[in-house]
Amino acid sequence: MVQPRSGGGAIPARSTIPIPQALSGAIDDDKRQPAAAAGALREGGILAGMSSTHPDSSAEPAPPASLAAATDSMPTAGAPPTRSVILTGDRPTGPLHLGHYAGSLRSRVDLQHVHDQTILIADLQALTDNTGRPIDLRGNIRELVLDYLAVGIDPAVTTIAVQSGLPELAELTVLYLNLVTVARLERNPTVRAEIVLRGFSRALPAGFLAYPVSQAADITALRATLVPVGDDQLPMIEQTNEIVRRLAQLAGRSVLPECQALLSDTPRLPGTDARKASKSLGNAIALSASPDEIRAAVRAMFTDPGHLRASDPGRVEGNVVFAYLDAFDEDRAEVERLKEHYRAGGLGDSVVKRRLEDLLQALLAPIRALREQFAADPGAIETLLREGTARTRKTAAGVLSDVREVFGLDR
Ligand code: TRP
């Protein structure tokens, strides 16, 4: 379904920053680990389900799609574009970094022109894994929005909504909880991994165990059919579709569309020290990094510990500098030449790092500038969130009314 769009006038529509490749994936909290995703298809995977028709809720679980498929539906001469309703979500837990940009943000910038895209700021979900630890949600939300705007998310075409501003989601969650067993919740592999990671084993917050149900409410409330996520989120998509089917069973007819995961084609960008990129490890380059911070981060990047002299042959695999060049350097032929030279010996780290630093400075300078521009107008951010949330609420209220009816409640 097509949502009404309005720029809101708060922040003008802008042309987007040129991006090298379209890639997708979710921004995931850096403390979680991807769960083993059985049957996951990545790039070049199944292209089905990309049409504008919603999959029937009695159908088999929708397989994950790839971004290649999503952009295949870009308007081409003679063929009408097929639009999907896209929902992505982020927990507002801290500033976004280059890994988020490579894995998710730049693909959202592309997708927003092809599909009906909503980004949900999942502040209630952020509460579920921060129990007993107050986090600055208000500040984090503001920073998150600044990051979105700075990379070219255009509020005239992408709706940005705040989860806690949508009470319909809470009510949907309560209704859906009747369709899910505790045993099923406990089987969710991502939730299991997170329970271990967060040391919840002895005092598991009920809200945490149930967050996949709340995420099902997020997705279904918008009748989203395409959900760009990291593979750790595939179990959430699966549980969402189970709920959709249980609801259809209960109603004896299809009520809500099933959704499909849209998986990233890009490998996860490592941290500067080759470990998993994470705020807490201080090994990620923030989108808001200063020129000095960028320089220092590139200088300190992990390369090949065996590559002591420039004349030594070096390893490209596991070499963070090359991982970043792979993610951001548009001159693929030159990167391949550099790799060959590096492997053969005779190419010093400092030369490759210089190239990467120049590239990252050029990439982040306009992003930083836009961020500062938007940061100067906090009222505009409030307005766009209010309007995006209000728009989303209308859709959610329609879905809630349909679901209430299935449960025999007044609409
Ligand atoms: N769990 C998602 C994550 O941390 C965030 C999220 C919340 C989400 N609601 C969503 C993602 C709805 C997609 C759709 O990455």
The amount of helix comes to 40-55%
Q: Give the full name of the CATH homologous superfamily of the largest domain.
A: HUPs
Q: What's the CATH topology label of the largest domain?
A: Rossmann fold
| 3D shape | elongated
* Separation, N- and C-terminal Cα atoms: 21 Å
Which structural class best describes the helix and strand composition?
mainly alpha
Question: What is the class of the largest domain in the CATH system?
Answer: Alpha Beta
Number of strands: 6
Which small-molecule ligands are present, each listed once?
tryptophan
Q: What integer value in Å does the Rg equal?
A: 22 Å
Q: Looking across the biggest beta sheet, what order are the strands in? A: 1-6-5
What fraction strand?
5-15%
Q: Compute the number of helices.
A: 15
CATH architecture of the largest domain: 3-Layer(aba) Sandwich
Low-confidence runs (pLDDT<50, min 5 residues)?
A: 1-59, 73-80
**Biggest beta sheet summary:** 3 strands, parallel
**Mean pLDDT, as a whole number?**
85
Number of structurally distinct domains:
2
Order of helices and strands: EHEHEHHEHHHHHEHEHHHHH
Summed up, what is this model?
The chain is mostly helical and 411 residues long.
Model description:
The chain is mainly alpha-helical and 411 residues long. The protein has two domains: 19-270 and 379-406, 3-Layer(aba) Sandwich (Rossmann fold), CATH 3.40.50; 291-368, Tyrosyl-Transfer RNA Synthetase, CATH 1.10.240.10. 45% of the residues lie in helices and 7% in strands. It is built from 15 helices and six strands. The strands form two sheets. It has a three-stranded parallel β-sheet. It has a three-stranded parallel β-sheet with strand order 2-3-4. β5, α10 (234-251) and β6 (260-263) form a beta-alpha-beta unit. α5 (167-176) crosses α9 (211-221) and α9 packs across α10 (234-251). The longest helix is centred in the C-terminal third of the chain and has 29 residues, at 378-406. The chain is elongated, with a radius of gyration of 22 Å. The protein starts with 64 loop residues before the first strand and ends in a 5-residue tail after the last helix. The relative contact order is 0.17. The model is unreliable at 1-59 and 73-80 (pLDDT under 50). Bound molecules: tryptophan (TRP).
